[in-house]
């Protein structure tokens, strides 16, 4: 199967950049389109038990968007160094597997490539697995790159 459009969620971690590298190699082999997304929470304080000012939220959004843009730029440089043209997008909303899957559907991708830290046991129980959540939520193929 030749993949036409590949999506990689990027969060600024080394494992997400490793996923970009693998996805770029696949995209180059299949002459596929490559897209990178970074998720930014619209309201990170949704379940907080305190009130916050609009100044706090403004500072959060400026910093969150800056971090997302930096992560996407670094991912873009990795893909371009591998000889692949890439598009980038910041996705606002809840930082969740659901939003990764929705972005994939909206963009018409046919493969999601993402990194996983490969946590096991109690660490996995406490921290969960974002990649595993995407696997459960998506009908698309998901390639998981382990650290």
UniProtKB/TrEMBL annotation:
Major site of localization recorded for this protein: cytoplasm
Q: Could you tell me which PANTHER family the record lists for this protein?
A: STRESS RESPONSE PROTEIN NHAX (PTHR46268), UNIVERSAL STRESS PROTEIN HP_0031 (PTHR46268:SF15)
Q: What is this protein called in UniProt?
A: Universal stress protein
Gene Ontology cellular-component terms for this entry are: cytoplasm
Does the entry feature the keyword Cytoplasm, yes or no? yes
**Start and end of every UspA domain?**
3-146
Q: Which UniProt keywords apply?
A: Cytoplasm
Q: Does the keyword Signal apply?
A: no
